[in-house]
Amino acid sequence: MAWWSAKGRRDRVEIARRHLALLADQNSEAAAHFADDRPDRAVAILLQVRAECEQLFGAHHPATLTVTGNLGVSLVAAGRGAEGVLVIEAAAYERSRVYGPEHPETLTARDALATAYRLAERWEDAIAVSTEVEAARRRVLGPTHPHTLTTRMGAALAIAATGDVRSASALLEDALADAERALGPHDRITIALRAAAAGCLAVGGRTNRAVTMFERAIADSTAVFGPTHPETAALRDDLADVHQPERLGIHRVVPA
After folding, report:
1. Which of 39, 84, 193, 224 is the right S-S partner for 75, CB 3.0 to 4.6 Å?
2. What are φ and ψ of residue 226, in 5° steps?
3. Of the candidates 243, 235, 251, which has an alpha carbon nearest to the alpha carbon of residue 160?
């Protein structure tokens, strides 16, 4: 075989690597827009990135599947709930087909699907998928792994959205206790669980305890991220709404 054949392969690999790095940067840019509450801008970028990934690497490449999942979540956040759910359903199916039903990538996609169902008010579907993902993550990762705890929080919030805030509160406080033991009080997931539990308590009329938990979450978030971080600011907004719990997002409607 001629020497330039190997060089040609190396060149193609290097070109693909550079393309992948560029697309990863664009995906990160979209994530930044999403975090800044600009999901429409994230959608515009991710549509382009997904098209380029499909052209360069194919529909089943891990990069394409990651971008597709991010696109679905961004569509839901942008108020395009029905469209976003379809995209995430397709991504979850493809990951299951490519990686297997209990691969971490598949479980991540299915967890995102459960969240999309919840935000689109398909609560029974959200609970069913969250329950399946939680069981798989408990088997694969254990009950206190961050991914498992995130799924437990999502499942509880789906239950709360149906109106059963008492059951949701109990599940969240159990997950919070596990998170504090396994991750410590200042971990982002622990703080999120404390805030979710506080929100359910507020919806359930247990305002004083909700205030105490929100104040603790704010203190922990301030210690970790600082007083002006968006997550800290969001917690302060939640505390301000504690006497108007319908504004806390425990029951959130995303237009179809």
Report:
1. 84
2. 105, 160
3. 251
State how far the Cα of 84 lies from the Cα of 86, in Å rounded to an integer: 5
Report the residue count for the chain: 256
Q: Is 180 exposed, middle or buried (0-12, 13-18, 19+ CB in 10 A)?
A: middle
Q: What is the chain's percent helix, strand, coil content, to nearest 5?
A: 80, 0, 20
pLDDT 10s digits, 179-202: 999 999 999 999 999 999 999 999
**DSSP 3-state of 146:** helix
Q: How far apart are CA 66 and CA 72, in angstroms?
A: 10
Triad 46, 188, 49: Cα angle to 5°: 10
pTM of this structure: 0.77
253 phi/psi in degrees, rounded to 5: -100, 130
80 vs 72: CA distance, rounded Å: 9
Indicate the DSSP class of residue 145: S
Where do we find the tokens 């990538």?
Answer: 105
Lowest mean pLDDT among 46-55, 110-119, 247-256: 247-256
- Kindly give, in sequence order, each residue whose CB lies less than 8 Å from that of residue 153, ignoring residues fewer than 6 positions away: 172, 175, 189, 192, 193, 196
On whether the CB atoms of residues 171 and 155 are closer than 8 A, the answer is yes
What's the confidence (pLDDT) of residue 198? Answer: 95
Distance CA 113, CA 76 (A): 10
